[in-house]
Design brief:
The complex is a heterodimer of chains A (112) and B (109).
Chain A: E1 4-7, E2 10-13, E3 19-25, E4 31-37, E5 43-51, E6 54-57, E7 64-66, E8 76-78, E9 87-94, E10 102-103, E11 107-111
Parallel strand pairs in A: 2-11
Antiparallel strand pairs in A: 1-3, 3-8, 4-5, 4-9, 5-6, 7-8, 9-10, 9-11
Chain B: E1 4-7, E2 10-14, E3 19-25, E4 32-38, E5 45-51, E6 56-59, E7 62-67, E8 72-77, E9 86-93, E10 97-99, E11 103-108
Parallel strand pairs in B: 2-11
Antiparallel strand pairs in B: 1-3, 3-8, 4-5, 4-9, 6-7, 7-8, 9-10, 9-11
The chains are: A mainly beta (112), B mainly beta (109).
C-alpha cells in the first residue's frame, strides 16, 4: 500500500488543544503533502514540502503548522487557531521524477 | 491559481452501462491530469493519468481523454461493475495538484 503510514486512524480532541498528526514514508520520496478532506468537497492542500527543511503553504494553511526535519517524516499540527478542525486528513508523497502522489490511509480528527 | 470543476457530483448507472465524468481546468500551463478512486473511509488511489502531450489513454475498462484547447478532460468507464462504486476525483497539476470536488458513482446490480 505505498509505504506511507499515518497515525492514529482516529483522533479525538477537545476544542482549544493543539494536536499533531503523524505521517511517515519509506519510499525515499522527496516531496510530501498534507490535504484536508471534508464531505462533498475535494482534497484541499494545507502544506507541502519539496525537500527536507523546507515547506510551503498550500491553499488552506491558516491554523496549521508543519515541520520537515527528516526526509521520512512530515508531521502536521492542528492548532487551536484552526476554526473548524474536524475533518479527514490525508498525507501524500511523490518521487522526484514522477508526478504520481501516493496517499496514506488518513487520520479522522474529531474536535468537540 | 488553478481551479478544477468536476461534473456531475453524483452519477448512478446500471451494471454494464458506461459512466463518464468530466472536469475542466483553468490554467493552460497544467501538464498532468490524474484520476483517483476513493472507496468509503479509504485512501485515494490512482486509477489512470494523462500528460498534456497525449490526447487519450486507455487501461482495460477505463480511459481518459484530454482536450487542451478547451481545457477539459474526461474519465470513461465501460462495462461498469458494482465494485466500481466509489468517489472519483480528477486533478490538474501545475507545480501542485488541484483536485475537483469529486463524483459519487453508484453502480446498481
Amino acid at each position: 500500500d505505498g509505504g506511507i503510514t499515518q497515525s492514529p486512524k482516529y483522533l479525538f480532541r477537545k476544542e482549544g488543544q493543539n494536536v499533531t498528526l503523524s505521517c511517515e514514508q519509506n519510499l525515499n520520496h522527496d516531496a510530501m503533502y498534507w490535504y484536508r478532506q471534508d464531505p462533498g468537497q475535494g482534497l484541499r492542500l494545507i502544506y507541502y514540502s519539496q525537500i527536507v527543511n523546507d515547506f510551503q503553504k498550500g491553499d488552506i494553511a491558516e491554523g496549521y503548522s508543519v515541520s520537515r526535519e527528516k526526509k521520512e517524516s512530515f508531521p502536521l499540527t492542528v492548532t487551536s487557531a484552526q476554526k473548524n478542525p474536524t475533518a479527514f486528513y490525508l498525507c501524500a508523497s511523490r518521487g522526484t521524477n514522477n508526478y504520481e502522489q501516493y496517499f496514506g490511509p488518513g487520520t479522522r480528527l474529531t474536535v468537540t | 491559481g488553478e481551479n478544477v470543476e468536476q461534473h456531475p457530483s453524483t452519477l448512478s448507472v446500471q451494471e454494464g452501462d458506461s459512466a463518464v465524468i468530466k472536469c475542466t481546468y483553468s490554467d493552460s500551463a497544467s501538464n498532468y491530469f490524474p484520476w483517483y478512486k476513493q472507496e468509503l473511509g479509504k485512501r485515494p488511489q490512482l486509477i489512470i493519468d494523462i500528460r498534456s502531450n497525449v490526447g487519450e489513454k486507455k487501461d482495460q475498462r477505463i480511459a481518459v481523454t484530454l482536450n487542451k484547447t478547451a481545457k477539459h478532460f474526461s474519465l470513461h468507464i465501460t462495462e461498469t461493475q458494482p465494485e466500481d462504486s466509489a468517489v472519483y476525483f480528477c486533478a490538474a497539476h501545475y507545480g501542485k495538484l488541484t483536485f475537483g470536488q469529486g463524483t459519487i458513482l453508484t453502480v446498481h446490480p
